[in-house]
């Protein structure tokens, strides 16, 4: 049992039953709620009518194109530099190409150019990351998304779903509109801002948790099942992946902008509040987390 006073939100996975009393009390306290499918995919969210900074939402949607691009550039540059660090830990030479693409992202003059640098970096990064997995069964050619075609992508899907739920909770908690993104589109009611913000956390948090879980035997080949349309984690495998992610997200590091120790989960809220400060005009620029 965890007292509500020690929580900052509620994330529900799969077909878990949550009482109406708990949902009401959670919202009454101003905590956001996120619902996820069994695979970790976010299916919806709710926030309290007492959520903070509601006035900031109108400013968020009036953000000019130049300001949005500046925030997006920082996020994608940091994402690629964190990919460089991930490959450096595994001694892969592709990191030099990624450094060049990070510099291109920092100078991108349009969203199209930024997407181009990000896409090229992703292709190089995932091809290189495939060599970081030690078990012979943990092979993949590229990031396939959903539905997963191999065990590594199935594990990444769950880890990215967990990450998105955490980032979405942070965005909602500080009163920003999840649909008001700076790079991703809010089409089909996607939480665009959460998808933007999670970019800088993918490699050092979700990818690292998957590599660690597979290489250390927490995830085994028997934890995956091959259905006609996709590869999926078993119940035991999913619990193991969640445990690996939780260890990573609750570990601490020195925040590269502010210098103090934070957990990765706390860092998400720090970054969301930095976006809020930029929207409100309290900070001149957004600085994403790029580890060194």
What would you say this structure looks like, in words?
With 292 residues, the protein is mainly alpha-helical. The chain has a single domain, classed as Four Helix Bundle (Hemerythrin (Met), subunit A). It contains 10 helices and 7 strands. The strands form 3 sheets. A 3-stranded mixed beta sheet has the order 1-2-3. Strands 4-5 form a two-stranded antiparallel sheet. A two-stranded antiparallel ribbon has the order 6-7. Helix 3 runs antiparallel to helix 4 and helix 6 crosses helix 10. The mean pLDDT is 88.
Structural class: mainly alpha
Mean pLDDT: 88
N-C termini distance = 38 Å
Largest pleated sheet: 3 strands, mixed
Give unreliable regions as ranges: none
Write the H/E string, N to C.
Answer: EHEEHHHHHHHEEHEEH
What's the short version?
With 292 residues, this protein is mostly helical. The protein has helices at 20-28, 56-61, 65-89, 95-106, 111-129, 151-173, 192-197, 202-215, 235-249, 264-279, and strands spanning 10-13, 33-36, 42-46, 224-226, 231-233, 252-254, 261-263.
Question: What attributes does this structure have?
Answer:
mainly alpha; Four Helix Bundle (Hemerythrin (Met), subunit A)
Compile the SSE list and pairings.
Blueprint: E1 10-13, H1 20-28, E2 33-36, E3 42-46, H2 56-61, H3 65-89, H4 95-106, H5 111-129, H6 151-173, H7 192-197, H8 202-215, E4 224-226, E5 231-233, H9 235-249, E6 252-254, E7 261-263, H10 264-279
Parallel strand pairs: 1-2
Antiparallel strand pairs: 2-3, 4-5, 6-7
């Amino acid at each position: 049992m965890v007292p509500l006073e020690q929580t900052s939100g509620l994330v529900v996975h799969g077909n878990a039953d949550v009482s109406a009393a708990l949902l009401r009390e959670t919202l009454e306290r101003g905590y956001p709620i996120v619902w996820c499918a069994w695979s970790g995919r976010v299916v919806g969210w709710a926030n309290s009518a007492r959520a903070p900074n509601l006035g900031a939402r109108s400013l968020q949607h009036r953000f000019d194109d130049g300001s949005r691009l500046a925030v997006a550039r920082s996020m994608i540059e940091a994402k690629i530099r964190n990919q460089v660090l991930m490959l450096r830990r595994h001694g892969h030479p592709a990191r030099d190409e990624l450094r060049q693409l990070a510099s291109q992202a920092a100078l991108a003059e349009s969203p199209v150019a930024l997407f181009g640098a990000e896409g090229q970096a992703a292709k190089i990064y995932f091809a290189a990351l495939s060599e970081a997995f030690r078990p012979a069964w943990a092979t993949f050619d590229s990031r396939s998304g959903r539905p997963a075609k191999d065990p590594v992508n199935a594990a990444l899907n769950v880890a990215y779903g967990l990450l998105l739920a955490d980032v979405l909770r942070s965005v909602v908690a500080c009163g920003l509109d999840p649909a008001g993104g700076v790079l991703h589109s809010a089409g089909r009611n996607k939480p665009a801002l959460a998808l933007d913000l999670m970019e800088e956390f993918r490699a050092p948090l979700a990818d690292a948790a998957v590599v660690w879980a597979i290489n250390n035997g927490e995830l085994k080949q028997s934890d995956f099942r091959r259905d006609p349309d996709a590869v999926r984690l078993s119940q035991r495998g999913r619990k193991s992946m969640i445990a690996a992610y939780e260890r990573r997200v609750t570990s601490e590091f020195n925040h590269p902008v502010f210098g103090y120790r934070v957990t990765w989960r706390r860092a998400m809220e720090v970054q969301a509040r930095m976006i809020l400060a930029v929207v409100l005009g309290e900070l001149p620029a957004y600085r994403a987390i790029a580890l060194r």
